[in-house]
């Protein structure tokens, strides 16, 4: 239990969520719960790209600013951005003003639009890479996996940027493709139950949910 964070309600949680006040709600209500909404999936993979070299606290604190700046991460709209939008975003003090990362979001929006045209949805594509829980390392002991490496490689082949294996693995953890909550974490079983009820997007390969309660 020494590796756990004990919140005000007396319940143990993943240690990382005690590092900043805003982490607790994110941990309890978002992180690890399965997501099939394309806009949320696109938002998260973009924000993970922005996090590269920074802390998640920095990105989470600016998340609403990012949403406002990028039209709610509606990739059909972001795909139409021009150099004028890049200039606007580089002048926006509410977000991370990194030209390469900004241009990557616009590029990836175009790639996402193309991917949806081919696959039907981003969710159907991403969920094909859901790992077999039995093959995963112990919770929060790995920074990547074979599936994350495969997804990263395939996204890069399709023209996506800022989607390295570590970035992709963090995306998979957050979007529920992996239940990486610590074994004693009070939220782990809630995530397991949500994964057990979750209807995998059409076209995805459904692996088992052995830890579902």
TrEMBL record:
<dbReference type="InterPro" id="IPR011257">
    <property type="entry name" value="DNA_glycosylase"/>
</dbReference>
<dbReference type="InterPro" id="IPR005019">
    <property type="entry name" value="Adenine_glyco"/>
</dbReference>
<protein>
    <submittedName>
        <fullName>DNA-3-methyladenine glycosylase I</fullName>
    </submittedName>
</protein>
<dbReference type="Pfam" id="PF03352">
    <property type="entry name" value="Adenine_glyco"/>
</dbReference>
<dbReference type="InterPro" id="IPR052891">
    <property type="entry name" value="DNA-3mA_glycosylase"/>
</dbReference>
């Amino acid at each position: 239990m020494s590796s756990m964070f004990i919140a005000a309600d007396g319940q143990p949680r993943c240690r990382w969520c005690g590092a900043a006040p805003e982490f607790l709600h994110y941990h309890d209500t978002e992180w690890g719960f399965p997501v099939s909404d394309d806009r949320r999936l696109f938002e998260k993979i973009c924000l993970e790209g922005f996090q590269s070299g920074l802390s998640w606290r920095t990105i989470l604190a600016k998340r609403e600013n990012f949403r406002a700046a990028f039209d709610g991460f509606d990739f059909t709209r972001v795909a139409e951005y021009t150099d004028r939008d890049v200039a606007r975003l580089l002048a926006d003090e509410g977000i991370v003003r990194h030209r390469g990362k900004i241009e990557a979001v616009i590029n990836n929006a175009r790639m996402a639009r193309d991917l949806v045209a081919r696959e039907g949805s981003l969710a159907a594509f991403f969920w094909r890479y859901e790992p077999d829980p039995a093959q995963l390392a112990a919770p929060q002991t790995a920074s990547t996996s074979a599936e994350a490496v495969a997804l990263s490689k395939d996204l890069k082949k399709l023209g996506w940027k800022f989607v390295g294996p570590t970035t992709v693995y963090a995306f998979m953890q957050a979007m529920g493709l992996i239940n990486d909550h610590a074994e004693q974490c009070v939220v782990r079983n809630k995530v397991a139950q949500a994964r057990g009820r979750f209807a995998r997007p059409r076209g995805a390969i459904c692996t088992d949910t052995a830890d579902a309660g």
